[in-house]
Amino acid sequence: MTQVEESPGTPSARQRSPRGGWAGVAALALGTFTVVTSEMLPVGLLTPMGASLGVSEGVAGLTLTITGLVAAVSAPVLVPMLGRADRRTALCVLVAVLVIGNLGAAWAPDFGLMVAARVLVGIGMGGVWAVAAGLAVRLVPAKSAGPATSLVFSGIAVASVLGVPAGTYLGAAAGWRSAFLAAAGLGLVVLVAAAVLLPRLPAERAIPLGGVMGLIGDARVRTGLVVVGFVVTGHFAAYTYIRPVLEDVSGVGAGTVGTLLLVYGAAGVAGNFLAGAGAARSPRRTLLVISAVLAATVTALPWLGGSVALAAVLMAVWGLSYGGVSVSTQTWILIAAPDAREAASSLFVGVFNGAIALGALLGGLAADGIGTTAVMWVGGALAVGALVTTAAGRAPAPAAGA
């Protein structure tokens, strides 16, 4: 493995430049928020997107599947391809790809061109997430590395729980294409912020693709990736189709769906920071709680969601639990591979997004083949799989001071 780390006597990038620090961490958090929001925008827009593009809701859900698959493949491949490239420059290029993809999605006159645009979104998303995940520790003093990394991950969690309702509201007010235009505009803000606020970030090391894939041989990393696969697939099998489920079960309209998603999102923000603190002490215990609550909540929604009030409570509990998934699972992976953060993160992003794609696909098959509420049973069963794997698999031990 070719090392390109700075020598011990060389000042770090943040010492040589006034840029970086918490402002740079905030730019990374805004970047992760933007890429994950861009990926998941179709969740709250399936009904109008499908009608406009002339496809069913199940087919429209493939726009999420395609993006997730591309991100799953691109993340582990892009990190070795970047080699010694400065990470600030790489981030700017990848965000530019994301912006072009969102502009293409906003313009797409048919489903084929929408797919092409979403491929670009997947490439940009997979690369940005994988690179940004390990950079926070290079921007702040060592004693602040944990909170800084959690802040970067919070961009992912907040996007997961707030990006969708924001897109739903905007789509209802100004049309679904406006949501993609807004995402493109936000991407431009991230591009400028990264260029201005980040210092030069030379690659820590060049890692071949074989080195990235070799991490799977570590039982702790492997267990964490399997847990990610179960819990994220289960969540997105259900959540991708939450709008038609709520419309069928609760009889609500687009405005109320947006409100329920906002309740879910607000709870999810709290869940992110609660889980972040818990995962630093015990990733296994935190994920056991998350998986159990997800399984119970998703399964209960078809039974109890007929009442809008109960649906709101269930959405809040769902958001509280899933809001902690990204920070808990990413913490598990980084603790398991402390000397290969970027490589481990690229695997994590690959599995995470592959799970998003698989979840959206399974949910679409269940929705079109059995009925919309069937997606909840699929999601609950997979959450149980995450619970069993977390309990039985090998977990990493947090380092002292984590």
From TrEMBL:
Keyword vocabulary terms for this entry: Cell membrane, Membrane, Transmembrane, Transmembrane helix
Pfam families in the record: MFS_1 (PF07690)
Cellular compartment(s): Cell membrane
CDD domains: MFS_NepI_like
PROSITE patterns recorded: MFS
Primary location class: membrane
Cellular component terms (Gene Ontology): plasma membrane
Record-annotated Major facilitator superfamily (MFS) profile domain positions: 24-398
Membrane topology (UniProt): Multi-pass membrane protein
Transmembrane domains' residue ranges: 20-38, 58-79, 91-109, 115-139, 151-172, 178-198, 219-242, 254-275, 287-304, 310-335, 347-367, 373-393
GO function term, MF aspect, one: transmembrane transporter activity
Keyword Transmembrane helix (UniProt): yes
Coiled-coil residue windows: none
Protein name as catalogued: MFS transporter
